[in-house]
Amino acid sequence: MNGTAPRPRPATPADAAAIARIWYPGWRDAHLGNVPDALLAVRTEASFGERAVQRVADPGTRTAVAEAGGEVAGFVMVVGDEVEQVYVSAAHRGSGVAVLLLAEAERLVAGNGHRSAWLAVVAGNTRARRFYERHGWADEGLFTHAAPHEDGPIAVPAHRYVKPLTPVR
């Protein structure tokens, strides 16, 4: 980083490759050993590139990136009241980018008119679970998350976290 404070902005199609470069290794860090083999088999590196392009273009998904030092340092994806993805590049972990992105995700959910946000965290991802708890998210317990796949959802044990929000007026 060049000392420029990170800032969020809406993602553009030109950001999809950077998002995929962050998403794939970040997803593996958080999910290896914590999800069914069926999900690991379909979450290939190429699939993250395809999904990044699709999700950035999807009008139902609000994607924001954090720029730091002229590069994409992380991203969030919000669908309705769900904070669906929160990832920070390895080079920017511990720099405050995750806090910035989580606040942006909460702002986007509130902007969608919701009074609370939720997200799913695989049970074994204790680092992420502690992070969300430190930022006011409450663990509502285990549930079966339906991870999307073109051949049908894949059941993944996860914790559901929620946070009340102040709606944007």
Per DSSP E runs of 2 or more residues, the count of β-strands stands at 7
What form results from the Cα inertia axes?
Answer: globular
Secondary-structure element order, N to C = EHHHEEEHEHEE
Low-confidence stretches: none
User: Sheet with the most strands?
Assistant: 4 strands, antiparallel
Please tell me how large the radius of gyration is.
Answer: 15 Å
Separation of the first and last Cα atoms: 35 Å
Number of helices: 5
What strand order characterises the main sheet?
Answer: 1-2-3-4
Assess the beta-strand content as a share of residues.
25-35%
Quick overview:
By secondary structure, this protein is an alpha+beta fold. It has helices at residues 16-31, 37-42, 45-57, 97-111, 126-134; strands at 7-10, 62-68, 71-79, 82-88, 116-122, 138-147, 154-164. The model has no long low-confidence stretch (mean pLDDT 93).
What do these coordinates show?
It is globular, with a radius of gyration of 15 Å. Helix content is 35%, strand content 33%. The relative contact order is 0.17. Helix 1 (16-31) crosses helix 3. By secondary structure, the chain is α+β, with helices and mostly antiparallel strands. Strands 1-2-3-4 form a four-stranded antiparallel sheet, with helices on both faces. A three-stranded antiparallel sheet has the order 5-7-6.
